[in-house]
Design goal:
6-stranded mixed sheet, about 450 residues
Amino acid sequence: MKLTTTEGADPNYLATVIKLPTIKEHPNADRLSVVEVFGDSIVIGKGSYTQGDKVVYFPVESCLSRKFLSHFNLFDKSDLNADGKTKGYFSTSARVKAIRLREIPSQGFLFKVSDLAKYYEIDENTFTIGDIFDTVGDDTLVTKYVKGSSKGSGASNVKKSRLPKWVDATIGVLPRRIRIFVYKPVNAWFNRDMEGIKAQIVDGHFAYHYKTEHLGKNMFLVKDSDRIVITSKLHGTSAVFGNVLCKRSMNPLRSLWNKLGGKIPTTEHKFVYSSRSVLKNRKDGKYTEDVWGDWAKKLDGKIPPNTIFYGEIVGYTSGGKTIQPNYDYGVLPKESEFRVYRVTYNLGHTTYEMDWDEIESECDRIGLKTVPILYHGYADALFPEIPKDENWNDQFLSVMKDTYLDKDCDLCKGKIVNEGVVLRVDNIGTNPRALKFKSPKFVIKESSARDKGMEDMEEDA
Protein backbone atom coordinates (compact mmCIF):
# COMPACT_ATOMS: atom_id res chain seq x y z
CA MET A 1 0.00 0.00 0.00
CA LYS A 2 1.53 3.31 -1.11
CA LEU A 3 1.11 6.98 -0.26
CA THR A 4 0.16 8.94 -3.38
CA THR A 5 -1.02 12.37 -4.44
CA THR A 6 -4.03 12.75 -6.71
CA GLU A 7 -3.22 14.44 -10.01
CA GLY A 8 -4.23 18.10 -9.89
CA ALA A 9 -4.63 18.17 -6.10
CA ASP A 10 -4.08 21.58 -4.48
CA PRO A 11 -0.68 21.36 -2.69
CA ASN A 12 -1.93 23.61 0.11
CA TYR A 13 -4.31 20.93 1.40
CA LEU A 14 -2.18 17.78 1.31
CA ALA A 15 -1.09 15.78 4.36
CA THR A 16 2.59 15.85 5.36
CA VAL A 17 4.55 13.40 7.50
CA ILE A 18 6.68 15.33 10.01
CA LYS A 19 8.74 14.80 13.13
CA LEU A 20 7.03 16.61 16.00
CA PRO A 21 9.08 19.70 16.91
CA THR A 22 9.68 21.18 20.33
CA ILE A 23 6.61 21.07 22.57
CA LYS A 24 6.04 24.31 24.49
CA GLU A 25 3.89 25.11 27.49
CA HIS A 26 0.58 26.80 26.76
CA PRO A 27 0.76 30.19 28.51
CA ASN A 28 -2.89 30.17 29.58
CA ALA A 29 -3.84 26.50 30.09
CA ASP A 30 -2.32 23.76 32.28
CA ARG A 31 -3.76 20.92 30.21
CA LEU A 32 -2.67 22.20 26.82
CA SER A 33 0.64 22.50 24.98
CA VAL A 34 1.74 24.26 21.79
CA VAL A 35 3.89 23.18 18.84
CA GLU A 36 4.88 25.17 15.79
CA VAL A 37 4.58 23.46 12.40
CA PHE A 38 5.70 25.30 9.25
CA GLY A 39 5.47 28.56 11.18
CA ASP A 40 1.90 27.99 12.37
CA SER A 41 1.04 27.21 15.99
CA ILE A 42 -1.05 24.12 16.81
CA VAL A 43 -2.54 23.52 20.24
CA ILE A 44 -2.42 19.92 21.49
CA GLY A 45 -3.43 18.11 24.65
CA LYS A 46 -0.67 18.06 27.25
CA GLY A 47 1.05 14.68 27.32
CA SER A 48 -0.68 13.46 24.15
CA TYR A 49 2.54 13.64 22.12
CA THR A 50 6.27 13.38 22.68
CA GLN A 51 8.84 15.54 20.93
CA GLY A 52 10.20 13.61 17.96
CA ASP A 53 7.02 11.58 17.39
CA LYS A 54 6.30 10.79 13.75
CA VAL A 55 2.97 12.45 13.00
CA VAL A 56 0.83 13.45 10.03
CA TYR A 57 0.04 17.14 9.70
CA PHE A 58 -3.27 18.19 8.09
CA PRO A 59 -3.54 21.90 7.15
CA VAL A 60 -6.40 24.29 7.83
CA GLU A 61 -9.34 24.00 5.39
CA SER A 62 -8.44 20.45 4.43
CA CYS A 63 -11.28 17.93 4.64
CA LEU A 64 -10.67 14.52 6.22
CA SER A 65 -12.18 11.15 5.37
CA ARG A 66 -15.48 10.69 7.22
CA LYS A 67 -14.73 7.00 7.62
CA PHE A 68 -11.41 7.87 9.28
CA LEU A 69 -12.98 10.43 11.63
CA SER A 70 -15.77 8.04 12.59
CA HIS A 71 -13.35 5.19 13.28
CA PHE A 72 -11.39 7.33 15.75
CA ASN A 73 -14.54 8.89 17.29
CA LEU A 74 -13.50 12.39 16.24
CA PHE A 75 -16.89 13.80 15.22
CA ASP A 76 -18.57 16.17 17.67
CA LYS A 77 -21.82 14.21 17.32
CA SER A 78 -21.59 10.81 19.03
CA ASP A 79 -24.05 9.12 16.65
CA LEU A 80 -21.56 9.68 13.80
CA ASN A 81 -18.76 7.92 15.66
CA ALA A 82 -17.93 4.22 15.68
CA ASP A 83 -18.63 3.69 19.38
CA GLY A 84 -21.82 5.79 19.33
CA LYS A 85 -20.84 7.44 22.63
CA THR A 86 -17.70 9.53 22.36
CA LYS A 87 -17.79 13.16 21.23
CA GLY A 88 -14.80 14.61 19.40
CA TYR A 89 -14.36 18.08 17.90
CA PHE A 90 -14.87 17.71 14.12
CA SER A 91 -18.15 19.04 12.72
CA THR A 92 -20.12 17.11 10.11
CA SER A 93 -18.19 19.02 7.40
CA ALA A 94 -15.08 16.98 8.38
CA ARG A 95 -13.12 20.19 7.93
CA VAL A 96 -9.91 21.21 9.73
CA LYS A 97 -10.70 24.63 11.17
CA ALA A 98 -8.54 27.41 12.52
CA ILE A 99 -9.56 28.20 16.08
CA ARG A 100 -8.28 30.08 19.09
CA LEU A 101 -7.77 28.07 22.29
CA ARG A 102 -7.20 30.19 25.38
CA GLU A 103 -5.88 33.08 23.27
CA ILE A 104 -3.47 30.93 21.22
CA PRO A 105 -4.29 30.28 17.54
CA SER A 106 -4.40 26.63 16.48
CA GLN A 107 -3.95 26.13 12.73
CA GLY A 108 -3.90 22.50 11.74
CA PHE A 109 -4.50 18.96 12.97
CA LEU A 110 -1.91 16.36 13.98
CA PHE A 111 -2.32 12.58 14.11
CA LYS A 112 0.14 9.89 15.17
CA VAL A 113 1.58 7.77 12.37
CA SER A 114 1.49 4.70 14.64
CA ASP A 115 -2.30 4.95 14.93
CA LEU A 116 -2.77 5.72 11.24
CA ALA A 117 -0.65 2.69 10.29
CA LYS A 118 -2.84 0.44 12.47
CA TYR A 119 -5.96 1.89 10.85
CA TYR A 120 -4.69 0.96 7.38
CA GLU A 121 -3.04 -2.24 8.64
CA ILE A 122 0.32 -1.32 7.16
CA ASP A 123 3.87 -0.93 8.45
CA GLU A 124 4.72 2.40 10.10
CA ASN A 125 7.75 2.66 7.83
CA THR A 126 5.36 3.21 4.92
CA PHE A 127 5.24 6.78 6.24
CA THR A 128 8.56 8.58 5.80
CA ILE A 129 9.40 12.03 7.17
CA GLY A 130 8.71 14.53 4.39
CA ASP A 131 6.10 12.43 2.56
CA ILE A 132 3.30 14.56 1.10
CA PHE A 133 0.10 12.75 0.10
CA ASP A 134 -3.70 12.65 0.06
CA THR A 135 -4.33 8.96 -0.64
CA VAL A 136 -3.27 5.76 1.13
CA GLY A 137 -3.60 2.81 -1.21
CA ASP A 138 -7.01 3.35 -2.83
CA ASP A 139 -8.42 5.35 0.09
CA THR A 140 -8.58 9.14 -0.11
CA LEU A 141 -7.67 10.41 3.36
CA VAL A 142 -7.74 14.17 2.78
CA THR A 143 -8.98 16.67 0.18
CA LYS A 144 -9.44 20.41 -0.06
CA TYR A 145 -12.63 21.53 1.66
CA VAL A 146 -15.17 22.86 -0.83
CA LYS A 147 -18.22 24.80 0.23
CA GLY A 148 -21.41 22.78 -0.21
CA SER A 149 -23.15 25.10 -2.64
CA SER A 150 -21.60 26.61 -5.74
CA LYS A 151 -23.03 29.43 -7.80
CA GLY A 152 -21.43 28.12 -10.99
CA SER A 153 -20.33 31.51 -12.24
CA GLY A 154 -19.04 31.77 -15.77
CA ALA A 155 -21.84 29.71 -17.31
CA SER A 156 -22.37 32.50 -19.84
CA ASN A 157 -19.34 31.18 -21.72
CA VAL A 158 -21.06 27.88 -22.62
CA LYS A 159 -24.00 27.27 -24.94
CA LYS A 160 -25.78 24.08 -25.92
CA SER A 161 -25.31 22.87 -29.48
CA ARG A 162 -28.33 23.64 -31.66
CA LEU A 163 -29.01 23.95 -35.39
CA PRO A 164 -31.54 26.46 -36.72
CA LYS A 165 -34.90 24.69 -37.26
CA TRP A 166 -34.93 25.26 -41.04
CA VAL A 167 -31.45 23.68 -41.36
CA ASP A 168 -32.39 20.73 -39.14
CA ALA A 169 -35.57 20.19 -41.18
CA THR A 170 -33.65 20.37 -44.47
CA ILE A 171 -31.09 17.79 -43.40
CA GLY A 172 -33.85 15.63 -41.95
CA VAL A 173 -35.34 14.88 -45.37
CA LEU A 174 -32.07 13.46 -46.72
CA PRO A 175 -31.32 9.71 -46.76
CA ARG A 176 -29.77 8.49 -43.50
CA ARG A 177 -26.26 7.91 -44.87
CA ILE A 178 -26.12 11.37 -46.42
CA ARG A 179 -27.67 12.86 -43.28
CA ILE A 180 -24.90 11.39 -41.10
CA PHE A 181 -22.22 12.64 -43.49
CA VAL A 182 -23.66 16.19 -43.75
CA TYR A 183 -24.76 16.75 -40.19
CA LYS A 184 -21.30 16.89 -38.57
CA PRO A 185 -19.75 19.73 -40.67
CA VAL A 186 -23.01 21.72 -40.74
CA ASN A 187 -23.39 21.42 -36.96
CA ALA A 188 -19.75 22.42 -36.48
CA TRP A 189 -20.30 25.53 -38.60
CA PHE A 190 -23.42 26.73 -36.80
CA ASN A 191 -21.92 25.99 -33.37
CA ARG A 192 -18.32 26.97 -34.08
CA ASP A 193 -18.24 29.26 -31.03
CA MET A 194 -20.20 26.88 -28.78
CA GLU A 195 -17.57 26.84 -26.02
CA GLY A 196 -16.89 30.54 -26.27
CA ILE A 197 -13.37 31.91 -26.11
CA LYS A 198 -12.05 28.83 -24.31
CA ALA A 199 -12.18 26.69 -27.47
CA GLN A 200 -10.48 29.41 -29.53
CA ILE A 201 -7.36 29.99 -27.39
CA VAL A 202 -4.24 28.48 -28.95
CA ASP A 203 -2.75 25.84 -26.64
CA GLY A 204 -0.17 27.25 -24.25
CA HIS A 205 -1.18 30.89 -24.69
CA PHE A 206 -3.32 31.34 -21.57
CA ALA A 207 -3.00 30.05 -18.02
CA TYR A 208 -4.70 30.76 -14.73
CA HIS A 209 -2.42 31.77 -11.87
CA TYR A 210 -0.59 28.85 -10.29
CA LYS A 211 -1.40 27.76 -6.73
CA THR A 212 0.47 30.02 -4.32
CA GLU A 213 1.92 27.66 -1.73
CA HIS A 214 2.48 28.17 1.99
CA LEU A 215 5.73 30.02 2.76
CA GLY A 216 6.31 28.19 6.04
CA LYS A 217 6.15 24.84 4.30
CA ASN A 218 8.53 25.99 1.56
CA MET A 219 10.87 28.31 3.44
CA PHE A 220 13.76 26.00 2.59
CA LEU A 221 13.50 27.26 -1.02
CA VAL A 222 14.53 30.78 0.04
CA LYS A 223 18.27 31.46 0.36
CA ASP A 224 19.88 34.36 2.20
CA SER A 225 21.50 35.45 -1.09
CA ASP A 226 18.19 35.57 -2.98
CA ARG A 227 16.72 38.79 -4.27
CA ILE A 228 13.19 38.87 -2.90
CA VAL A 229 10.02 40.95 -3.01
CA ILE A 230 7.61 40.98 -0.07
CA THR A 231 4.16 42.39 -0.82
CA SER A 232 0.90 42.70 1.07
CA LYS A 233 -1.57 39.90 0.40
CA LEU A 234 -4.81 41.66 -0.48
CA HIS A 235 -8.23 40.26 0.41
CA GLY A 236 -10.26 40.80 -2.74
CA THR A 237 -10.96 38.58 -5.73
CA SER A 238 -8.44 37.22 -8.24
CA ALA A 239 -8.49 38.46 -11.82
CA VAL A 240 -6.55 37.71 -15.01
CA PHE A 241 -6.51 39.94 -18.11
CA GLY A 242 -4.62 39.05 -21.27
CA ASN A 243 -4.21 39.70 -24.99
CA VAL A 244 -3.69 36.15 -26.24
CA LEU A 245 -3.41 34.25 -29.50
CA CYS A 246 -6.67 32.60 -30.60
CA LYS A 247 -7.88 30.57 -33.56
CA ARG A 248 -10.10 32.53 -35.93
CA SER A 249 -13.69 31.38 -36.26
CA MET A 250 -14.33 28.59 -38.77
CA ASN A 251 -14.77 29.88 -42.31
CA PRO A 252 -15.01 27.39 -45.24
CA LEU A 253 -14.13 30.01 -47.85
CA ARG A 254 -10.98 31.06 -45.97
CA SER A 255 -9.96 27.42 -45.50
CA LEU A 256 -10.49 26.73 -49.20
CA TRP A 257 -8.52 29.80 -50.22
CA ASN A 258 -5.58 28.83 -47.98
CA LYS A 259 -5.61 25.31 -49.44
CA LEU A 260 -5.30 26.89 -52.88
CA GLY A 261 -2.23 28.80 -51.76
CA GLY A 262 -3.74 31.82 -50.05
CA LYS A 263 -2.23 33.24 -46.88
CA ILE A 264 -5.14 34.52 -44.84
CA PRO A 265 -4.14 34.31 -41.12
CA THR A 266 -5.88 31.55 -39.18
CA THR A 267 -5.12 33.13 -35.79
CA GLU A 268 -5.65 36.51 -34.20
CA HIS A 269 -5.10 38.13 -30.81
CA LYS A 270 -8.13 38.49 -28.56
CA PHE A 271 -8.72 40.05 -25.17
CA VAL A 272 -9.42 37.33 -22.61
CA TYR A 273 -10.25 37.73 -18.93
CA SER A 274 -11.09 35.47 -16.03
CA SER A 275 -11.63 35.10 -12.33
CA ARG A 276 -9.40 32.73 -10.38
CA SER A 277 -10.57 29.69 -12.34
CA VAL A 278 -13.36 30.67 -14.75
CA LEU A 279 -13.08 32.42 -18.11
CA LYS A 280 -15.56 35.31 -18.05
CA ASN A 281 -15.78 36.41 -21.73
CA ARG A 282 -19.36 36.30 -23.00
CA LYS A 283 -20.25 34.82 -26.38
CA ASP A 284 -21.96 37.96 -27.61
CA GLY A 285 -18.78 40.00 -27.25
CA LYS A 286 -20.15 42.04 -24.36
CA TYR A 287 -18.59 42.09 -20.93
CA THR A 288 -19.98 40.36 -17.86
CA GLU A 289 -21.87 42.62 -15.46
CA ASP A 290 -19.49 42.24 -12.52
CA VAL A 291 -16.14 43.54 -11.26
CA TRP A 292 -14.25 41.46 -13.83
CA GLY A 293 -16.34 42.88 -16.66
CA ASP A 294 -15.91 46.42 -15.29
CA TRP A 295 -12.14 46.10 -15.46
CA ALA A 296 -12.24 44.29 -18.80
CA LYS A 297 -13.87 47.38 -20.31
CA LYS A 298 -11.04 49.54 -18.94
CA LEU A 299 -8.18 47.29 -20.01
CA ASP A 300 -9.33 46.03 -23.42
CA GLY A 301 -6.99 47.58 -25.99
CA LYS A 302 -4.30 48.51 -23.45
CA ILE A 303 -2.58 45.15 -22.93
CA PRO A 304 0.12 44.29 -25.53
CA PRO A 305 -0.16 41.07 -27.58
CA ASN A 306 0.94 37.84 -25.84
CA THR A 307 0.89 39.54 -22.43
CA ILE A 308 -1.14 38.52 -19.36
CA PHE A 309 -1.66 40.56 -16.16
CA TYR A 310 -2.51 38.77 -12.90
CA GLY A 311 -3.79 40.56 -9.83
CA GLU A 312 -6.42 41.21 -7.21
CA ILE A 313 -9.52 43.38 -7.56
CA VAL A 314 -10.28 45.18 -4.29
CA GLY A 315 -12.75 47.76 -3.08
CA TYR A 316 -16.40 47.75 -4.12
CA THR A 317 -18.67 46.36 -6.79
CA SER A 318 -20.46 48.89 -9.00
CA GLY A 319 -23.54 48.26 -6.86
CA GLY A 320 -21.75 49.57 -3.78
CA LYS A 321 -21.07 46.28 -1.97
CA THR A 322 -17.55 45.61 -0.69
CA ILE A 323 -15.84 42.81 -2.60
CA GLN A 324 -14.83 41.37 0.76
CA PRO A 325 -16.69 42.55 3.91
CA ASN A 326 -14.89 45.45 5.66
CA TYR A 327 -11.87 45.33 3.34
CA ASP A 328 -12.32 48.55 1.35
CA TYR A 329 -8.57 49.29 0.92
CA GLY A 330 -9.32 53.00 0.88
CA VAL A 331 -11.26 52.77 -2.39
CA LEU A 332 -14.29 55.02 -2.83
CA PRO A 333 -17.76 53.38 -2.69
CA LYS A 334 -18.90 51.81 -6.01
CA GLU A 335 -15.31 51.86 -7.24
CA SER A 336 -12.55 49.25 -7.32
CA GLU A 337 -8.83 48.87 -8.00
CA PHE A 338 -7.00 46.17 -9.91
CA ARG A 339 -3.68 45.56 -8.11
CA VAL A 340 -1.15 43.60 -10.18
CA TYR A 341 1.23 40.98 -8.73
CA ARG A 342 2.37 39.07 -11.82
CA VAL A 343 2.88 39.68 -15.57
CA THR A 344 3.85 37.10 -18.18
CA TYR A 345 4.80 37.29 -21.86
CA ASN A 346 4.34 34.35 -24.23
CA LEU A 347 7.33 33.58 -26.44
CA GLY A 348 5.63 30.84 -28.46
CA HIS A 349 6.87 27.67 -26.83
CA THR A 350 7.79 29.21 -23.47
CA THR A 351 6.39 31.78 -21.07
CA TYR A 352 8.59 34.62 -19.85
CA GLU A 353 7.98 35.75 -16.26
CA MET A 354 8.64 39.44 -15.77
CA ASP A 355 10.68 40.40 -12.71
CA TRP A 356 9.36 42.97 -10.28
CA ASP A 357 11.08 45.95 -11.93
CA GLU A 358 9.54 44.96 -15.27
CA ILE A 359 6.11 44.50 -13.65
CA GLU A 360 6.24 48.00 -12.19
CA SER A 361 7.33 49.41 -15.56
CA GLU A 362 4.46 47.68 -17.41
CA CYS A 363 1.93 48.86 -14.83
CA ASP A 364 3.18 52.45 -15.06
CA ARG A 365 2.90 52.31 -18.84
CA ILE A 366 -0.82 51.46 -18.83
CA GLY A 367 -1.77 53.22 -15.59
CA LEU A 368 -2.14 50.31 -13.16
CA LYS A 369 -0.99 49.84 -9.58
CA THR A 370 0.85 46.85 -8.17
CA VAL A 371 -0.01 45.24 -4.86
CA PRO A 372 1.58 47.23 -1.98
CA ILE A 373 5.29 46.49 -1.68
CA LEU A 374 6.84 45.99 1.76
CA TYR A 375 10.40 45.10 0.78
CA HIS A 376 12.46 44.64 -2.39
CA GLY A 377 16.09 43.60 -2.12
CA TYR A 378 18.33 40.81 -0.93
CA ALA A 379 16.95 38.52 1.74
CA ASP A 380 19.93 38.80 4.08
CA ALA A 381 19.68 42.61 4.05
CA LEU A 382 16.10 42.64 5.40
CA PHE A 383 17.03 41.28 8.83
CA PRO A 384 20.84 41.59 8.95
CA GLU A 385 20.93 40.61 12.62
CA ILE A 386 20.06 36.97 11.76
CA PRO A 387 23.21 34.77 11.65
CA LYS A 388 23.81 33.03 8.33
CA ASP A 389 23.86 29.48 9.65
CA GLU A 390 21.70 26.32 9.40
CA ASN A 391 18.92 28.07 11.36
CA TRP A 392 18.72 31.12 9.07
CA ASN A 393 15.48 30.00 7.32
CA ASP A 394 13.60 29.37 10.57
CA GLN A 395 14.84 32.60 12.12
CA PHE A 396 13.96 34.62 9.03
CA LEU A 397 10.42 33.19 9.02
CA SER A 398 9.97 33.95 12.71
CA VAL A 399 11.18 37.56 12.46
CA MET A 400 9.18 38.14 9.28
CA LYS A 401 6.00 36.94 11.01
CA ASP A 402 6.59 39.32 13.94
CA THR A 403 7.30 42.18 11.56
CA TYR A 404 4.42 41.87 9.09
CA LEU A 405 1.63 39.56 10.30
CA ASP A 406 -1.38 40.24 12.54
CA LYS A 407 -1.06 43.99 11.90
CA ASP A 408 -3.86 46.39 11.02
CA CYS A 409 -4.57 46.77 7.30
CA ASP A 410 -2.77 50.02 6.40
CA LEU A 411 -5.06 50.90 3.49
CA CYS A 412 -8.45 50.00 4.98
CA LYS A 413 -10.53 52.73 6.60
CA GLY A 414 -11.64 50.57 9.52
CA LYS A 415 -9.51 48.72 12.07
CA ILE A 416 -9.16 45.23 10.60
CA VAL A 417 -6.33 42.70 10.42
CA ASN A 418 -4.21 42.43 7.27
CA GLU A 419 -4.56 39.21 5.29
CA GLY A 420 -0.84 38.52 5.27
CA VAL A 421 2.14 38.70 2.94
CA VAL A 422 3.50 37.12 -0.22
CA LEU A 423 7.23 36.53 -0.63
CA ARG A 424 8.49 36.28 -4.19
CA VAL A 425 11.97 35.01 -5.07
CA ASP A 426 12.95 37.33 -7.90
CA ASN A 427 16.44 36.28 -8.99
CA ILE A 428 17.51 37.18 -12.53
CA GLY A 429 17.46 34.19 -14.86
CA THR A 430 15.06 32.11 -12.78
CA ASN A 431 11.31 31.69 -12.77
CA PRO A 432 9.93 33.78 -9.90
CA ARG A 433 8.16 31.77 -7.25
CA ALA A 434 5.56 33.33 -4.96
CA LEU A 435 4.82 31.93 -1.49
CA LYS A 436 2.14 33.16 0.90
CA PHE A 437 1.83 33.48 4.66
CA LYS A 438 -1.51 34.54 6.12
CA SER A 439 -1.93 36.33 9.43
CA PRO A 440 -3.13 33.89 12.12
CA LYS A 441 -5.87 36.33 13.17
CA PHE A 442 -7.06 36.51 9.57
CA VAL A 443 -7.06 32.71 9.16
CA ILE A 444 -9.24 32.34 12.27
CA LYS A 445 -11.55 35.11 11.05
CA GLU A 446 -11.79 33.47 7.62
CA SER A 447 -12.52 30.06 9.14
CA SER A 448 -15.24 31.53 11.34
CA ALA A 449 -16.86 33.25 8.34
CA ARG A 450 -16.92 29.93 6.50
CA ASP A 451 -18.61 28.33 9.52
CA LYS A 452 -21.36 30.94 9.25
CA GLY A 453 -21.81 30.31 5.52
CA MET A 454 -20.87 33.88 4.59
CA GLU A 455 -20.51 34.63 0.88
CA ASP A 456 -17.00 34.91 -0.52
CA MET A 457 -16.69 36.37 -4.02
CA GLU A 458 -13.25 34.81 -4.47
CA GLU A 459 -14.40 31.32 -3.52
CA ASP A 460 -17.69 31.52 -5.42
CA ALA A 461 -15.92 32.66 -8.61
